[in-house]
Design a protein that fits this description.
mainly beta; five-stranded mixed β-barrel
Length: 144
């Protein structure tokens, strides 16, 4: 999915020291009702290096691309009510816009892949029968 962060992501550490971050992405739907664009707000959680990457390079309003899986979990709130949460667990995140489109804030853009120089075309020169010599053979039978 691709959308914009609705708030600055919140980086935390588990008691075991594992980084975890939660954020919400506003994702526009491909269709509109009554010519008014509809937007879904999707909760996302990322762990470890992905969490640290999001914390370092993304903030409110930045376009983000998230690849992951939808997971549901059940929990009990402070009042003892049973609740269900649906969220995307991010496996991979990428920038959704170029550095120049993001305004004056600095960001990270992965370097463009480099291409190897093209190999020269193979050329063949025709030879003359005189360029070859006959090899002597012990027998006329094939060698296999």
């Amino acid at each position: 999915m691709m959308g914009r962060l609705v708030a600055d992501p919140e980086l935390r550490q588990t008691p075991n020291g594992v980084s975890v971050i939660t954020f919400t992405v506003a994702v526009d739907r491909n269709y509109s009702r009554d010519r008014e664009r509809q937007t879904d707000f999707i909760d996302v959680v990322a762990w470890r290096q992905t969490a640290e990457f999001v914390s370092k390079y993304f903030s409110k309003g930045k376009m983000i691309i998230v690849e992951g899986s939808i997971q549901t979990r059940s929990y009990e709130d402070r009042n003892g009510n049973k609740r269900r949460a649906v969220e995307v667990v991010a496996d991979n995140v990428q920038f959704g816009e170029s550095k120049s489109a993001g305004g004056s804030q600095q960001g990270y853009t992965a370097p463009a892949p480099t291409q190897a120089p093209p190999e020269p075309a193979v050329s063949y020169a025709s030879g003359d029968v005189g360029d070859f010599s006959e090899m002597s053979s012990d027998s006329d039978d094939p060698p296999f």
